[in-house]
Amino acid sequence: xxxxxxxxxxxxxxxxxxxxxxxxxxxxxxxxxxxxxxxxxxxxxxxxxxxxxxxxxxxxxxxxxxxxxxxxxxxxxxxxxxxxxxxxxxxxxxxxxxxxxxxxxxxxxxxxxxxxxxxxxxxxxxxxxxxxxxxxxxxxxxxxxxxxxxxxxxxxxxxxxxxxxxxxxxxxxxxxxxxxxxxxxxxxxxxxxxxxxxxxxxxxxxxxxxxxxxxxxxxxxxxxxxxxxxxxxxxxxxxxxxxxxxxxxxxxxxxxxxxxxxxxxxxxxxxxxxxxxxxxxxxxxxxxxxxxxxxxxxxxxxxxxxxxxxxxxxxxxxxxxxxxxxxxxxxxxxxxxxxxxxxxxxxxxxxxxxxxx
Amino acid sequence: xxxxxxxxxxxxxxxxxxxxxxxxxxxxxxxxxxxxxxxxxxxxxxxxxxxxxxxxxxxxxxxxxxxxxxxxxxxxxxxxxxxxxxxxxxxxxxxxxxxxxxxxxxxxxxxxxxxxxxxxxxxxxxxxxxxxxxxxxxxxxxxxxxxxxxxxxxxxxxxxxxxxxxxxxxxxxxxxxxxxxxxxxxxxxxxxxxxxxxxxxxxxxxxxxxxxxxxxxxxxxxxxxxxxxxxxxxxxxxxxxxxxxxxxxxxxxxxxxxxxxxxxxxxxxxxxxxxxxxxxxxx
Lengths: 357, 283
Hints:
The structure holds two protein chains of two kinds.
Chain A: H1 2-11, H2 28-49, H3 52-78, H4 85-102, H5 108-130, H6 135-148, H7 150-155, H8 157-160, E1 166-167, H9 183-207, H10 209-219, H11 221-226, H12 231-257, E2 259-260, H13 267-280, H14 286-309, H15 313-334, H16 338-354
Antiparallel strand pairs in A: 1-2
Helix pairs in contact in A: 2-9, 3-9, 3-10, 3-12, 3-13, 3-14, 4-5, 4-12, 5-12, 9-12, 10-12, 13-14, 13-15, 13-16, 14-15
Chain B: H1 2-32, H2 39-57, H3 60-87, H4 91-113, E1 118-119, H5 132-154, H6 156-166, H7 168-173, H8 178-200, E2 204-205, H9 211-224, H10 229-249, H11 255-269
């Protein structure tokens, strides 16, 4: 490793995207944490030049991205298709709301840790119950989970608030930062810090032994079992990690929005998450970034556009959905690997130039 | 006891609708190995066309026939134009494409007919226990299932369709037009889906009217076994009865959770559904 690095330093690649040769030599947790820190710095700079509204939208992009990244590990990694990911976001959101209401003294970090814990327990329960299922059977079972769970909010409306949901008040920017950042910008920063840390963790897991085992199971379950991989346990672990990411994302959503209703965790949410994952690119965690941006911004752009075109109300209300559907089909038709696949193909010549021979 | 009887009959009637939708999913799964999320969209188009035609002609039954025919055509078109080019790339992509189609059709229906509800009539009188409308639902689904069984088992077309589904290579070598058979499968499935839409539509239709029915249809197909049309019918009846009992005795808001419980229970005992044969695994 070291010998090749010195030799390629001598050759010197001039292209800017060329990373230092030592980069790959770093242990993967360090590498991912550095990337996360870089991402946070870029995001902070981005917030400085944009306004409050963008901050809130980017916060939404953040937690959506985390949720989808968890799904990427599960679906892209182990090949288990879950259509009920929104259910775990709902569990996370309601747990956060209940914690804030009933234990207001806990700091946000403790709330979020507890949320992850609850989501892990839920993930173990669901994952263990569905570990033997494969393909469409798992999809069907998780689908009905996503549809059924909001029913709980109506059933236990004294605790969970029925269809009006729960409303919480969360603290904004700390006093010493008053005037430097607005409350929305502070929330966006908190969300992105949490999201990037969690994603660094996910990426580390994904590039480590567990990720390799997951991909082995995805490609051939029997071969993986013969190679000594505990198939059932590994699948449950993947499910649990995904649900933890989903739960944490839901908790962050509750923190940003302050209102949690069963109506925001419908089947449509779960289906949008998986569709966006495929749209962004299922084979890499970068896909989650494109997916998060697509989920939040496509709808905003489409409704802005229809308002500008002064269309009929029925058309205006339905156009964003149609645009999302058309994009989904077109992208999968022409770029089966999603947006990330297309980006990789476009940048392939650049990377080839900078790669060591 | 009368409550029990009422709930049973109610459950049978709703179960018939779930069974019909499950049947349409199973036919497509058998033919192309994908769960068709666009099924409620195809049913939606059929029902809205039926609505428009019966408004224009003043006859429910002309609209009914028009709805079923448009379901047939829509199914064939979707398979040819949208599914076939993408189904090759990956299984998940094909599923997501049907999802995209669902979004487009639901949005499109909302654009043309509006998001508000339209009144959609029952075929027959619907008042009372096991009303004529309920009898019609159960009977039409039963007849459809029997016709389908006959088609698969006793006609040359059915034989070709089964051959194309189970051994595409061998079928092609024996002169079966495999692609045409897939299209036929989609068309028949969408016809049955359109029937399910006609039965599930009343009293009101709106672009999201079939979301719930569709979820229970998938559930029924999954617990019955995606490979077996009889399983679909059995699953539909099971889900219909289970949800009817739970909502009658414990409260309607628990009905969906009851469906979840049924799925978990059935699949933990038989992971491939009640009526599917365990597949031999090849290494």
